[in-house]
UniProtKB/TrEMBL annotation:
<protein>
    <submittedName>
        <fullName>Uncharacterized protein</fullName>
    </submittedName>
</protein>
Amino acid sequence: MYVTFEYVAQASEYVAQASEYVAQASSLWSLEARGC
């Protein structure tokens, strides 16, 4: 299967967004856990 550079760039951008979302979610969760 041939993967184009454009596809790789899109995938890496998506991964970056996903990791940023996970970081925000984990920080929110830690704040809630501390509040308990």
